């Protein structure tokens, strides 16, 4: 399971720490498709996109994409 892989959970934790109280992160399995949904909200689009891209790369690196 993706949510027990340290490389992925560490990346999610790092994104949450980076955003702090100025944003949020949501990573979850889809209930209707065989995909992992990765979302981030931040004050700046560039920051949200960077966090999402890092989490996606961590998921891909573990062969889960």
Description:
There is one protein chain. The protein is α+β, with helices and mostly antiparallel strands. Helices cover 48% and strands 18% of the residues. The protein has a two-stranded antiparallel ribbon with strand order 1-2. Strand 1 (24-29) and strand 2 (36-41) form a beta hairpin. The longest helix has 17 residues, at 45-61. It is globular and about 30 Å long.
Note the main attributes of this structure.
2 strands; alpha+beta; globular; 2 helices; two-stranded antiparallel sheet; 65 residues
Inertia-based shape: globular
Instruction: Outline the biggest β-sheet.
Output: 2 strands, antiparallel
- The overall pLDDT average reads 96
Low-confidence stretches: none
Structural category is: alpha+beta
- Kindly estimate the percentage of residues that lie in beta strands according to DSSP: 15-25%
Number of helices: 2
Give the % helix. 40-55%
The run of helices and strands is HEEH
Span of the ends, CA to CA: 12 Å
The overall strand count is 2
Question: Secondary-structure blueprint of this entry?
Answer:
Blueprint: H1 6-19, E1 24-29, E2 36-41, H2 45-61
Concise overview:
This protein has 65 residues and is α+β, with helices and mostly antiparallel strands.
């Amino acid at each position: 399971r993706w949510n027990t892989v340290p490389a992925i959970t560490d990346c999610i934790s790092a994104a949450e720490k980076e955003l702090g109280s100025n944003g949020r992160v949501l990573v979850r399995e889809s209930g209707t498709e065989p995909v992992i949904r990765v979302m981030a909200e931040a004050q700046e689009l560039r920051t949200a996109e960077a966090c999402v891209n890092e989490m996606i790369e961590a998921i891909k690196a573990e062969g889960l994409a």
